[in-house]
Amino acid sequence: QLRLVESGGGLVQPGGSLRLSCAGSGFTQGYYAIGWFRQAPGKEREGVSCISRSGGSTNYADSVKGRFTISRDNAKNTVYLQMNSLKPEDTAVYYCAAGGPYCSGYPREYDYWGQGTQVTVSS
Q1: How far apart are CA 75 and CA 9, in angstroms?
Q2: 123, 104, 120: which is closest to 37 by C-alpha?
Q3: Residues 6+ apart with CB under 8 A from 51
Q4: For the chain, which end, N or C, has fewer CB atoms within 10 Å of the first or last residue's CB respectively?
Q5: Pairing mode, if any, of strands 58-60 and 117-121?
Q6: Under a CB-based contact definition with an 8 Å cutoff, are residues 113 and 97 in contact?
């Protein structure tokens, strides 16, 4: 069974940091590009960041450039999202997803999804 599990979410004050992890099982994440998406209540799911299967290419939404960093450790079958300088508007459920070999910001181009982890940025 193919599975992705997110972890690392929680409650943090504005300006704080969190590190999200996306761990895979039942398959090798090195075969896939991995995307991070987020969805706030009443909002559409949006792409946050992605990394190619080799790690050679990355992409970020304009809203998180300079604050978030995506990385992967294929030996550990894990992808990370380091989130710094968090803002209240970053509050959402964050999902990781596995797709083809290249980055994409479109949810429909990803085949496997985790259950999500809640990130809340509030004072």
Answers
A1: 23
A2: 104
A3: 33, 34, 35, 57, 58, 70, 71, 72, 79, 103
A4: N
A5: unpaired
A6: yes
More confident residue, 29 or 53: 53
Task: State whether residue 89 is helix, strand or coil.
Answer: helix
What does the pLDDT read at residue 74?
A: 81
What share of the chain has pLDDT > 90, as a percent? 76
Complete edge-to-edge strand list for the sheet that includes strand 68-73: 3-7, 18-25, 78-83, 68-73
Convert the pLDDT of each residue in 1-40 to its tens digit.
779 999 999 999 999 999 999 998 877 777 889 999 999 9
- Please, is 20 exposed, middle or buried when counting C-beta atoms within 10 Å of its C-beta (0-12, 13-18, 19+)? buried
Q: Which tokens in the block code for residue 123?
A: 């004072």
